[in-house]
UniProtKB/TrEMBL annotation:
Annotated binding of 1-deoxy-D-xylulose 5-phosphate, by residue: 124, 150-151, 175, 198, 211, 216-217, 220
Lineage: Bacteria, Pseudomonadati, Pseudomonadota, Alphaproteobacteria, Rhodobacterales
UniProt family annotation: Belongs to the DXR family.
Signal peptide: none
Organism: Pseudotabrizicola algicola
Binding residues for Mn(2+): 149, 151, 220
Broadest EC class assigned to this enzyme: oxidoreductase
Name of the molecule in the record: 1-deoxy-D-xylulose 5-phosphate reductoisomerase
Positions that bind NADPH: 10-13, 38-40, 123, 125, 204
Enzyme Commission identifier(s): 1.1.1.267
Name of the coding gene: dxr
Pfam families given in the database record: DXP_redisom_C (PF08436), DXP_reductoisom (PF02670), DXPR_C (PF13288)
Alphabetic keyword roster: Isomerase, Isoprene biosynthesis, Magnesium, Manganese, Metal-binding, NADP, Oxidoreductase
Protein's GO biological process: isopentenyl diphosphate biosynthetic process, methylerythritol 4-phosphate pathway involved in terpenoid biosynthetic process
Length: 394
């Protein structure tokens, strides 16, 4: 029986993964090793009652008594805290879904790679923060990383049977997010509610705001560089409002392979779950005659400064990715708290990177987990200072 674990089971990607696992037979087909959540203990317990994992873990220590009560008498072990999540990742499983949001997903993903045969990676922050370390760990332990981000799954599928050396460019599509058609001058006043109204994808709150600011796409540009090993100048971004082409690969003979499908994460999750085979998935089929037209436009870097910043991060290399991601997470927190404006998020990240470059050697190529966590921590301190300064001026 195939064994699986889901990290971030209670989130948007986690729910879609759970749905596919249940449709494929649930506990009859899979032996679940670990299920983890953050604070949503009620949902975690419901899932655990169905899939009967060895262990259910919540990140928040204060939620442990509720989790213990909810799973009393089931025989499912319960635990809480970051160390318990890392320990759960040490339990070998054939297939592991990494769907915790943010830098918190890095350590469990790394630990799982040391044992797991396949890591389905939704947590793009791991690759942005620690790409070289993650890829080297996978290579050392003969583990397979399967991209789950729809863009990277699309690229991965377009590259099956191809030589990466024949790739001229990779074109990432972006919906442009909820504020795509707003006048540039109005963006500074955008509220959280307005930024959350994504036109096509139903996703977690944080990634939805990151889509509106294109910080999500900026992370994906870096993720592409780290995962596929292409040069930054080979990666392009195009706005495609319909979100039906998930990304494209251009080859040196001029051919372009595009991956199309309905905007439903169960496609890329299902591809990773069934890889290397394909199996039927419960996703809507496209009616091309009804769609009739697809549109594209170049992104405006003034509207989306994150796309400019990610180029600077790729040039700096080393720990700049960790600093970029951590500063972005703090900026997003402050925006969600209503303390800074929508466009201030890019200001916080830019200011943090500018202050950290001389303070520590971001360019280092010798990356240990300690270096990465150190850069992450310092960037959070610097970004908090930058956000406080901006908030005071509002
Ligand atoms: P959600 O916010 O919906 O879910 C996040 C999950 O992580 C939840 O299970 C949450 O628990 C848990 N969690 C939150 N904080 C912590 C923490 N500090 N430690 C451990 N667990 C924590 O996120 P998404 O599902 O939207 O995204 C997950 C990842 O997948 C992200 O990296 C995102 O960029 C990526 N991704 C998401 C896509 C999507 O369609 N949603 C598409 C492509 C990539 P709880 O809810 O119980 O508090």
């Amino acid at each position: 029986m195939r064994s699986i674990s889901i990290f971030g089971a209670t989130g948007s990607v986690g729910e879609s993964t759970y749905d596919l696992i249940c449709r494929a037979g649930g506990a009859q087909t899979f032996r679940t090793v670990a299920l983890t959540g953050g604070r949503n203990v009620a949902r975690l317990a419901e899932m655990a009652r169905v899939l009967r994992p060895e262990v259910a873990v919540c990140a928040d220590d204060s939620c442990l008594p509720a989790l213990r009560d909810a799973l009393a008498g089931t025989g499912v072990e319960v635990a809480a805290g970051d160390a318990a999540i890392a320990e759960a990742a040490d339990r070998p499983a054939d297939w592991v879904m990494s769907a915790i949001v943010g830098a918190a997903g890095l350590v469990p993903g790394l630990r799982a790679l040391r044992h797991g045969r396949a890591l389905a990676l939704a947590n793009k922050e791991s690759l942005v923060t620690a790409g070289p370390l993650l890829m080297a760990t996978a290579a050392r332990h003969d583990a397979q990383i399967l991209p789950v981000d729809s863009e990277h799954s699309a690229i991965y599928q377009a590259l099956v049977g191809e030589d990466i050396a024949a790739v001229e460019r990779i074109i990432l599509t972006a919906s442009g997010g909820a504020l795509r058609d707003w006048p540039l001058e109005a963006l500074a006043q955008a509220t959280v509610k307005e930024a959350l109204a994504h036109p096509n994808w139903a996703m977690g709150q944080r990634i939805t705001i990151d889509s509106a600011s294109m910080f999500n796409k900026a992370l994906e540009v870096i993720e592409t560089r780290e995962f596929f090993g292409v040069r930054p100048e080979q990666i392009e971004v195009i706005i495609h409002p319909e979100s039906l082409i998930h990304s494209l690969v251009g080859f040196q003979d001029g051919a372009i392979m595009a991956h199309m499908g309905a905007p439903d994460m169960r496609h890329s999750i299902g591809y990773a779950l069934n890889w290397p085979a394909r199996a039927p998935l419960p996703v809507a089929r496209l009616d091309l005659a009804q769609i009739a037209t697809l549109s594209f436009r170049a992104p405006d870097l003034e509207r989306y400064p994150a796309l400019r910043l990610c180029r600077e991060v790729m040039e700096a290399r080393g720990l700049a990715g960790a600093a970029f991601n951590a500063a972005k997470e703090i900026a997003l927190d402050r925006f969600l708290e209503g303390r800074i404006g929508f466009m201030d998020m890019a200001g916080v990240v830019e200011d943090t990177l500018a202050r950290m470059m001389p303070e520590m050697c971001l360019e280092t190529d010798a990356m240990t987990l300690e270096d990465i966590l150190g850069a992450d921590h310092l960037a959070r301190v610097r970004a908090s200072e930058a956000a406080a300064a901006l908030a005071a001026r509002r």
